[in-house]
Amino acid sequence: MLTSIPCMLIRGGTSKGPFFLASDLPADPALRDQTLLAAMGSPDARQIDGIGGGSTLTSKAVIVGASSRPGIDVEYLFAQVSLTEHTVDTGPNCGNMLAGVAPFAIERGLVRVAGPATRVRIFNINTGKVIEAVVQTPQGRVTYEGDVRVDGVPGTGAGVELNFLDAAGAKTGALLPTGRALDVVDGVPLSCVDFTTPMVLIGAASLGKTGHESKADLDGDAELLARLEQLRLKAAVLMGMGDVTGKVLPKLALLGAPRFGGTISSRYFVPWNCHAAHAATGATCVAAACCIPGSVAALLAPGERGQQRALAIEHPAGKIEATVQFGADGSVLSAGIVRTARPLFSGQVYVRAQEALPEAA
User: Fold this and answer.
1) How confident is the model at residue 360 (pLDDT cuts 50, 70, 90)?
2) Does any domain span residue 173?
3) Are both 243 and 314 inside the same structural domain?
4) Do 329 and 350 belong together in one domain?
5) Which of 23, 51, 301, 317 is least enclosed, having the fewest CB within 10 Å?
6) Would you place residue 356 in the very low, low, confident or very high pLDDT band (cuts 50, 70, 90)?
7) Do 97 and 211 share a domain, yes or no?
8) Which residues, including other chains, have CB under 8 Å from residue 340's CB and lie 6 or more apart?
């Protein structure tokens, strides 16, 4: 016997996965996670018995619901579903999947269209932070066609503006969790920054790299991966995050000087292998770090601050652009990026009855 659950498969930026209404899934976190694992086909590296894509970039799920918070339209929870373990991680956020939240909310009737462009205020349950999304809605409905190109995604689409408001201290409570722009761990200079997501930023040259290596080259360097994990674990303790063994936060990036007209080059780790392109939240964190005097990023990408600064982060598939806004005191207030999203299918996902939950039936 199979149980069906309504969902919409959406590509958001360089990721994709099913989007669910919160009302269609169990409220109990353990039961909810069991349902997500069954729907995605985990644990199984191929996810052959589910709708997961057999990659960390395609084993993601998003849960969206109406909000009773003042000034907030919808709330969403991001879930990273493990490929090989019976676990679902709701600790991190995902800026790429976030690009699909506002369109999904409009498609499902949670938000009404308000003119040619509809502004949607989203509360991220993972981080407790607010994101403002602007979706193109000419003629009273979401349009997915446009001329915005996202490196790492075939073709073009309508831009979805994402503005991360008051994003400092998303997980640790502070932009600089260690209280310093620069730390040294095992002789390696690094910066611990928490803006939209907590990250450990390392100059590639300090580990004998350029920051321009391909994903395949980095993923094939077992010695480097082991060293990065050792540094990440020790930096996490300094950040007040404790023992993060087996946890995806904090993320890590190797940074280098730009080669293709950008501001800085970044190889983003997720965290045990290199991202094929770059996480959106990771890009906003790197961009913010470029504006923090004395950080590893700022040393590689010096520039004027003013009221705002536009930056381009080079990655294995091209570039991702971000704009950082500053307060009168020079503090980093917010960061914005533009992504694209589109629905791939809308319907029912079927899971085995013994794996589904009564509340999800």
Assistant:
1) very low
2) no
3) yes
4) no
5) 23
6) low
7) no
8) 13, 99, 144, 146, 148, 150, 153, 156, 157, 158, 159, 160
In the 8-state DSSP scheme, what is residue 2? Answer: E
Integer CA distances (angstroms), 78 to 193, 282, 312, 314, in order: 21, 15, 26, 25
Domain range for 95 is 2-159+341-360
Confidence at 361, pLDDT banded by 50, 70, 90: very low
Residue carrying the six token digits 């659950």: 5
Give the CATH number for residue 201: 3.10.310.10
Could you write out the three-class secondary structure of 274-323?
ECCCCCHHHHHHHHHHHCCCCCHHHHHCCCCCCCEEEEEEEECCEEEEEE
Q: How confident is the model at residue 354 (pLDDT cuts 50, 70, 90)?
A: low
Terminal-to-terminal C-alpha distance of the chain: 11
Distance between CA atoms of 42 and 46, rounded to whole angstroms? 8
One domain, residues 194 and 287: yes
The pLDDT tens digits of the residues spanning 244-259 come to 999 999 999 999 999 9
Backbone angles phi, psi at 296, to 5 degrees: -55, -40
